[in-house]
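pinning this so it doesn't scroll away 📌
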Amino acid sequence: MVYLDNGATSFPKPLAVVEEVKAFMTDVGGNAGRSGHKRAMEAAERVFECREKTGAFFGAKEVENIFFGLNTTHVLNTVIKGILRAGDHVIISDIEHNSVYRPIYRLAGEGKISYDIFSTVFEGKRKSDNEMLKSIMGLIRENTRMVICTASSNICSVRLPLKAIGRLCRDKGIIFVVDGAQGAGHEVINITDMNIDALCVPAHKGLLGPQGCGVGILGESMNDLLIDTVIEGGNGVDSLIGEMSVGLPERLEAGTLPTPAICGLMRGIEAVENIGIEKIKEKERGLFTFCREALDTVRNVKIYLREEEGSILLFNIEGLPSEYVASELDRREICVRGGYHCSALGHSALGTLDRGGVRVSFSIYNKKRDIEKLWRAVSEIVKQNI
């Protein structure tokens, strides 16, 4: 089997990740923050260690500002709905995943907020950094409270100029939130250097950890802001009062934490550090280039934003639905994803709303022979259907 669906979840996982999850399940097993016995205390120590590791990896200065959730969507909803207030205006990009678009769409539909969309793509090409900044500046109002954007698109390899956007937001007093689902582990993201107020990332994609864990990383700028809770419940502190505790991270961590996944995340981050972000970027861009050149030799194949080299390549075969192509590749034991990838905005920006696209997403563990097998399969599908 050839696995080229790392944008959905990375596979395979490093052995250290698998062993750490197993070790917690078999040797520790306690519920962090829920009891005073040794197993619970050891679980809490593992969680704290992962907070430290995650904070250091993303440039956070305070370990209390790292909170865990179930996935990136959960964490994004916590940040978006916990910060925004009635009458606020929000700016998002035109390639956002539904984990950003749908919470904003709902809040706007309920009349609580308003929003605008800035442009990153025009006529099949990525706009320049300056053009994106001008697009954002043209949308800023007196009541603009937040700018939200992805670090990197989940349907192509377009990356946004986070540092420049962060500087603009800091100068304007606007909260800057980043969806790092496709950026974390693929590129350097430092919340302090980039003036990011809240970064939301998953364990299971570029950070090579397990599914079931998302992380919110808050900057120092958020210390004086009391974030409203989206979910309430037990957190092991202030148990005799009806309200959630004020202090972070407990305020945003109602219920049992996904501790086995948190332990796996810690080892996943270590694996990324050991390999090195620059080496990962170089490998993935090399695979992208190799894949693009291979698919260019197949008639009726269209590649979108072909000059944006990175971990994701989107293509279609003219005359065939993307989901059909993905299913035909699956029959040949090649894992990709067809369709719309939970990104209505992104496919609208790329002009692929009619059928979506076939997404090929690479990781450090892919080889050129995986691309060669994909090329042979795509060539066969074209020959049989076109």
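📌 and the second one:
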Amino acid sequence: MKPSQQSSNNTTNIVVPLLVVMTLMFFWNMSRNINDVLIPHLKRACQLTDFQSSLVQSAFFGAYFLVALPAGQYIQRKGYKAGMISGLLIAAIGAGLFYPAAETRWYPLFLGALFVMAVGFTFLEVSATPYISKLGSAEEASSRLSISAAVGSVGASIAPYVGSLLLLHEKDISQQTIQALSPQALQNFLTEEANLVKLPYVSLMLLFSCMAIVLWFIRLPIIADETTTRYSFRNIFQFRHTLLGVGAVFAYVGAEVGIVSFLIRYAKSLNIDQLTEQKAALFISVFMALVLAGRLSGAWILKKATSNRMLIFSAGGALLLVLFAIVTTGLLSIWLLAFVGLFTSIMYPIVFTLSISQLGNYTKTASSLLIMGIVGGAIVPPIMGYVSDHVGIKWAFIAPLLCYAYVVWYAIKGYIVKTSANN
């Protein structure tokens, strides 16, 4: 066979697997970003405080923290395809649990359903990302990952809009109106609200189940790890820049999840005429669309500037936008928060790259630890909810402000390697 023909066949061989994994990334990103609309919906359906409703993100991102390492070990033993199929089936079970949760209108069951879904998504993320990076030439790995992240961002961008149409009302129903209902009318109203989740989440259950079946029959290239050398997990704690990088991931994810979680509630608190919850959800779509735009342009931008300087610019820009949003009001304040998405778009790959610098064979262990840093998305929103309940929702945004301040510090000093694998 001629070299050109062999190269063409190799390219063809990875197209189908790449499209399959990108499809998975589209739907799991879309599914998890419906949470930002689910928060105000469950707040009303289950009559919750801001703190209680923010536990949606705690249940979801807490799963990443608890399951990332076991999922990685499972995938090491069973392979990437088994990890993706298992992730889809677990996510399908979680989505299916929304039906009994809606029937009982029991908030802990909603949280349990979200946790199970997130366990499935953790399996998908831990298996799909490295699989794409190894699916083809090493020189084009970053390009494949960038395209895949962009596809996932498209799903994340349309999720708030689709979710708002399914879960939020075209005309808002005030809390005063709800409180004025008779006991029986109130129960009927809350039951109807809870039932709104049945259609989207049962549909997701069927979708994930069908995708698992299809994936079972698709022949994916088997990719072996480059090395089987194992290192003690505790050895990673000698690398200061890596541990501080976990803190940066925690802060970045916590700030982003916190902002989009409270964006609808914040917009409604400003009492702007004609700005319903359904319309306010569009600002989350704008946030995610700007994340997509930033990721598409990020590869080019990073060729023109050093990573730590770009991180200073990104985190510093996000910090200033949140600060100005706190001290201003009206639509300007909401737009400032929406534009944070543009500045956060390339933070994660930069932090990830800086955190695993000069780790050698410890890189895989560090990667698992960094994924655990996603738990920031489980902790920062409840902090914001507590502040919102006791001081006011505008002041809740001080939490992401402090998070971005930490990322700026990490980009200035924290990323510096003081211990490397070669020392």
